[in-house]
Amino acid sequence: MKLDDAPGVVSLSFDLPERQLGIVHRGTAKPVLERLASLNLGAVLLATHPHDEAAEPVADAGNDRERRTLQAVLGINAAMFVFELALGIVAHSTGLIADSLDMFADAAVYGLALYAVGRAAHTKARAAHLAGWLQLLLALGVLFEVIRRFVYGSEPEPTLMWAVGLIALAANVTCLVLVARQRDRGAHMKASYIFSANDVIANLGVIAAGVLVGVTGSSYPDLIIGTIIGLIVLNGARRILQLK
Questions:
Q1: Which whole number is the average pLDDT over 152-175?
Q2: According to DSSP H, which parts of the chain are helical?
Q3: pLDDT of residue 24 exceeding 80
Q4: Where in the chain do CATH 1.20.1510 domains reside?
Q5: 59: which DSSP letter?
Q6: Which residues on neighbouring strands pair with residue 24, listed in sequence order?
Q7: DSSP 40
Q8: Mean pLDDT, rounded, of the chain
Q9: If DSSP codes are grouped into helix, strand and coil, which group holds residue 134?
Q10: How far, in Å, CA of 23 to CA of 8, rounded?
Q11: What's the mean pLDDT in 93-107?
């Protein structure tokens, strides 16, 4: 945040375990170092060298890991969105449809986070907040769908619900493990971590709903779980919008 409005700062890369910050900037290093020194964290200049803006950007291993992680989880969530939405419609399950829309929102969030990699802290925060508003709209859409199906009725297919829920759970646990390793690299990655954690909870809910629908023969467990997922997504949006 200290460098948010610093003139000439192009990009930042953080190595938190080593307490090192790499900065691509225009002009001399002195104004940047003075801002960091004012934090009283013992900032010292380790090295500086010219960078040709016409050439490729300075390679940063941390940013590269972020990009690869986000590209992987974006692909997983985009594929699962199409898969779950199609089967949710076939199974008449609000839980599956809610979870598929959550997958779509996640894919959008990961795309925003991918855009923010290597950029200044305020850009990462803006990307996270945009993701939060997207999740807020998603939560309201899910709750509306639950109300609509409660009024007009539905006949969810329990076997399809828990089977698809298991597949989605495996996909989201994979995403959570990948994102957890990068969650300290900015607000955009914290937002991605919150989304991934919410997904795992939602998947467990869909599986539970499928089992309960099969045992009771009622659609109410699906509607209740759909409502809970909507509220979890709503709370996730609130947490993301509070990120700085």
A1: 80
A2: 30-37, 61-91, 94-116, 121-152, 158-180, 187-216, 220-241
A3: yes
A4: 61-241
A5: P
A6: 11
A7: T
A8: 77
A9: helix
A10: 10
A11: 74
Q: Whole-angstrom Cα distance, residue 184 to residue 244?
A: 13
- CA 4, 5, 8 angle in degrees (round to 5)? 100
CB proximity list for 169: less than 8 A, separation 6 or greater: 200, 203, 204, 207
Residue 11 dihedral angles phi and psi, to the nearest 5° = -155, 160
Contact 236, 194 (CB under 8 A): yes
CATH class, 61-241 region: mainly alpha
Q: What is the pLDDT of residue 35?
A: 87
In whole angstroms, what separates CA 76 from the centre of its chain? 12
CA angle (69, 73, 79) in 5-degree steps: 150
- Separation of alpha carbons 171 and 69, rounded Å: 14
Give CA separation, 50 vs 14, 18, 46, 58, 228, in Å.
19, 23, 14, 10, 54
β-strand partners of 12: 23
The Cα angle at residue 142 between residues 197 and 203, in degrees rounded to 5: 35
The average pLDDT across 77-98 equals 80
Q: What pLDDT is stored for residue 59 in this prediction?
A: 44
- pLDDT, greater one: 207 or 242: 207
Which residue carries 């590269």 as its tokens?
Answer: 64
Written as six digits, the tokens of 88 are: 């949710």
Share of the chain above pLDDT 90, in %: 0
Residue located via tokens 């909507």: 230
